[in-house]
Amino acid sequence: MKHAYVFPGQGSQAVGMGKDIYDNVPEAKELFEKANEILGFRITDIMFAGTPDELKQTKVTQPAVFLHSVILAKALGVKPDAVAGHSLGEFSALVVAGALSFEDGLRLVSKRAMAMQRCCEQQPGGMAAVLGLDDKTVEEVCASVDGVVVGANYNCPGQLVISGADAAVDEACVKLKEAGARRALRLPVGGAFHSPLMEPARQELEEAIAEAKFSVPMCPVYQNVDAQPYTDAEAIKKNLIAQLTAPVRWTQIVENMVSNGFDEFTEVGPGTVLQGLVTKVSREVKAESKSTL
After folding, report:
1. Which active-site residues does the annotation give?
2. Coarse DSSP helix, strand, coil percentages of the chain, rounded to the nearest 5 percent
3. Which helix (H) or strand (E) holds 265?
4. How far apart are CA 94 and CA 67, in angstroms?
5. What are the pLDDT digits (tens) for 154-213?
6. What is the pLDDT of residue 233?
7. Phi-psi sector, 223: left (phi>0), alpha (psi -120 to 50), beta
8. Which positions ≥6 away from 223 have C-beta within 8 Å?
């Protein structure tokens, strides 16, 4: 039996996340306090007792999800045979696998959040969830639209999120419904994540990633850009730089893991989204989620 650990992305946050680990595990409390120092504000106050709106701030959301996932994984003492993370979750996966230190991982996630926020302000855009169409049809419809709109999150068969300029996304939604989509629904996000419109953020993050120290991970990391497993530190770095403007190939990651013999999946962090997606990709595997000890 091979056991994969997977880590959620932005959108899975909830007020109260991580408080039980902070209260009950001294090592976890230390890491949370270290995070407060690194970030320069008490993110724990917002995570444990803030409002949903405070938690939704970009500078808070991404580090909060990262911290909950990584510190919980450390508290559980996980020993993965492989890891993967959805978008932001890839940073959590890299820290848990030992490819990045906790401190460097947090600094990169914080820089990523700020770079994405600036990019959203300069390059307005959005995303939409498309249900009930195969990937190829969605890609063809997007290609037929004037303006930037691309497949961004390949979540599971029949569920693909598109991303791009607002007018292009709206036009694509109309055409996708005409092509037979069950739904094509705009998502409440502030930008065109995982699309070419994120290029300024990618360039900004590239410098930070280039300066960070990456090590050989203890297990393969299946990366978002091409769904392949990596253990080479330089290749991991390169793929992480490409991640902001490239799609998240989650369907393909799970398919590749299953074909490589993985039959147990544990999602670590807030929410249960990935657990659901894993079982939609493969009914043969066992999937669970852990958001607490």
Report:
1. 87, 194
2. 50, 15, 35
3. strand 262-268
4. 13
5. 999 999 999 999 999 999 999 999 999 999 999 988 899 999 999 999 999 999 999 999
6. 97
7. beta
8. 84, 90, 230, 236, 239, 240, 243
